[in-house]
Amino acid sequence: MAPETPAPAALAPPIGTDKAAADPPASRRRAATAGPVFLAFILAAVLGVLGSVAIVLTYMAIARGVSSWSTTQRGFDSGPTIILLSALPMELALAGMAFLMVRRSKRGPVAELGLDRHRLAMKEWPILIIGSGVPFALGAALASIAPSTVDPDTYVELWRNISPASAVLWVVVIGAMPGLAEEIFFRGFMQRRLARAWSPVAAIIVSSLMFAFLHLDPATMALALVLGLWLGFVAWRTGSTWPGIAIHATINSSWNAGQIWFRQTEPDPSPVYMALGALGVISLLCFAWSVRFLLRRPAGASPSAEPVARSGAPVTGLGVSSV
């Protein structure tokens, strides 16, 4: 009887290899994830800046044809229309780049960016939004002591002199435009992508730093960093980008609406500060409740798409209109 021939070890790994060698190291996975994300941020920022410069130069050329240079300069400083128009290219670039980067996702762009669902009960929405006044107040306090390249009188003049019709447009657009575009990019795209290879905390911190960096002015960056950390935490625990959109838009719109009312009516400060104090207490209670219910629920799952590398109140001197 012939001896049995051993079966070939077809599935055995080659000599000198092991499982660790078959899988890419963690550092390589992190680099493969972060590289395209940061490249998308740079491209969006460049496109946004170029678009803004083009709009401003066009506006100046048109204005120079009908008035003097000094009038053109004053129009740029105080005109809400040119400020909104000059911000539009950046917001479009951010949102467009986010959708472009996830266009081939098997889950679809909407789900990939966290726009398909939310995990909040109806009663939790107002509590979360009101509670977000606490991180906003902390960020505003930090911004008020940070250096700024923006003259505070720029926005004070705008708030004081804006017409009612323009004020409605300003309040709506200054809330909706950054609220949608910036949250879709930084929390919907950047944070969720980084969380595939990094820890949730690292993804939140890095995306918040990039969010702050986009605002350029040091005072606004300080406010944006604090708010970005909170918005990142909310997006992580809810698994959705929608709560951050609602918070971001509400903060921007409320801040500007309050400033317009305060600058144009010049009310007695005492009742205003009493009302702000009461609102602060309510906001603090809502914030504590929000943190509690967010921590008690399972964190929102990171996107499980294709594997990577394997297959309020006026603040003196704070010239900030939005984050």
Explain what this protein looks like in three dimensions.
With 323 residues, this protein is mainly alpha-helical. The protein has a domain at 118-296. Helix content is 72%, strand content 0%. It has helices spanning 19-22, 26-66, 69-78, 80-101, 109-112, 124-131, 133-145, 152-161, 164-194, 200-214, 218-238, 242-265, 269-296. 37% of the residues are buried.
Envelope shape: globular
Number of helices: 13
Output the structural class.
mainly alpha
List the secondary-structure elements in sequence, H or E: HHHHHHHHHHHHH
Given as residue ranges, the uncertain stretches (5+ residues, pLDDT < 50) are 8-22, 68-78, 301-317
- Terminal-residue CA separation: 84 Å
Strand content: under 5%
Number of strands: 0
Helix content: over 70%
Biggest sheet character: none
What Rg, in angstroms, do the CA atoms define? 24 Å
Averaging pLDDT over every residue, what do you get?
Answer: 83
Name the features.
single chain; 323 residues; mainly alpha
